[in-house]
Specification:
With about 375 residues, the chain is an alpha+beta fold. It has 8 helices and 13 strands. β11 and β12 form a beta hairpin. α5 (about 245-265) packs across α8 (about 330-340).
Length: about 375
């Protein structure tokens, strides 16, 4: 749940709350892409999707920016949008799941019909779709992370503990042939969104890389410009591929301050600011989408952020990038922010989920039939 409760709107409408996005080449069918959108923190085993939302994946071709201090890639070209919608749930009560049908529309692939929680999912014309509760694959010692922010000192222990291990999420898994990408694109940016369904589609949530809203934008105490501003709802409603000019200065001020905080946790500066005071990673973080090379094979560890960081060094990337379900991405993020890779790996003491994802569709582990209850402050 790297993106859950990422602002007041998400806390008010948990059904629209995106918890994580994953994108990786299929380990089961080379030539296909797997997209995973997880929603509804602390989902009960009988959870169903909202019939009032559009669950959307967006993919855009990327081109190199050739800017050492900026975002290494820019989105352009024709966009591919994959939309999934669901019927109103029918029947069911208590622990019994209501019946619910869904439809997933893929450009050049038609529409795929699905039944929620059907382990086989639905498929048509090279597309497979699954929708239903699954074991949350995200791993992080959240209390230790929050203690680090509160105290200004690294608070991780070894071993650490997954926050409320065994919690479930609602998962939407789409596997699609990479031939749907326009113009044979090789490098793509991927975001996920939840939007209102109907004549006016309002973006409620969007997700790209893990923990951008909660660890890099949420803390306000370090921001000298907008210390009283809860910025995350504005950020989530913005277009990841085309940020509004109205709020970019606020985003940058918050990121410059918070990224400097993370950099200082080891007592040294590994990311010296530019002449304008900007943190060297701010523009990379603002380009908040997963970057995936669809021509590379599936990689389970070491691919997250590899494409972006190789581009910053002026080197060719070696992996598919993106984010796989079993990636220990938080150690990568903590190490990048705290010491830029110029020191030891910054570990939160957790290296794998209690129930790992598999290499077979629908990839995520089955849901916990008796998950822990959500604390009251996040319900």
């Amino acid at each position: 749940m790297s993106h859950h409760i990422s602002g007041p709107r998400a806390m008010a409408e948990p059904i629209a709350d995106i918890t994580d996005l994953y994108a990786f080449p299929s380990p089961e069918h080379p030539g296909r892409l797997v997209l995973v959108l997880n929603t509804l923190p602390f989902a009960p085993p009988s959870a169903v999707f909202s019939d009032g939302l559009i669950y959307r994946f967006r993919l855009r071709p990327l081109t190199a920016n050739n800017q050492q201090q900026g975002a290494p890639f820019a989105a352009g070209g024709e966009e591919i949008a994959i939309d999934c919608v669901f019927s109103a749930p029918a029947g069911g009560h208590g622990a019994n799941r209501p019946e619910q049908e869904g439809t997933c529309s893929v450009p050049a692939g038609g529409a795929v019909s699905i039944r929620v929680a059907d382990e086989c999912g639905g498929q048509a014309d090279g597309v497979r779709v699954f929708a239903g509760p699954r074991w949350d694959p995200f791993i992080m010692d959240a209390p230790a992370t929050l203690k680090t922010i509160a105290t200004g000192e690294l608070a991780f222990t070894d071993p650490g503990a997954i926050y409320l291990d065994g919690k479930n999420v609602l998962s939407l898994v789409v596997e699609v042939d990479r031939a749907v990408l326009p113009g044979g694109a090789e490098l793509v940016g991927v975001v996920a969104e939840t939007l209102t369904r109907g004549g006016l589609n309002v973006r409620l949530e969007r997700a790209g890389r893990p923990e951008v809203p909660n660890l890099m934008l949420a803390p306000r105490q370090f921001d000298p410009v907008n210390r009283d501003l809860e910025i995350r709802d504005l950020y989530n409603m913005d277009d990841a591929f085309d940020l509004s000019h109205a709020y970019q200065s606020a985003y940058r001020a918050r990121l410059n301050a918070n990224l400097a905080f993370w950099d200082g946790l080891d007592g040294k500066t590994d990311w010296p600011p530019g002449e304008d005071g900007a943190h060297p990673l701010t523009e990379l973080i603002l380009a908040d989408f997963l970057i995936l090379d669809v021509t590379k094979p599936y990689t389970e560890q070491g691919s997250f952020l590899e494409i972006e960081l190789a581009a910053r060094r002026g080197e060719a990337h070696q992996t598919c990038g993106g984010r796989a379900l079993n990636d220990d991405v938080m150690d990568t993020i903590f190490t990048l922010l705290v010491n830029a890779g110029n020191g030891p790996v910054i570990r939160d003491g957790i290296d794998q989920a209690t129930r790992a994802a598999s290499r077979a569709f629908p990839y995520l582990a089955p849901p916990n039939p008796d998950p822990p209850e959500a604390p009251r402050h996040v319900q």
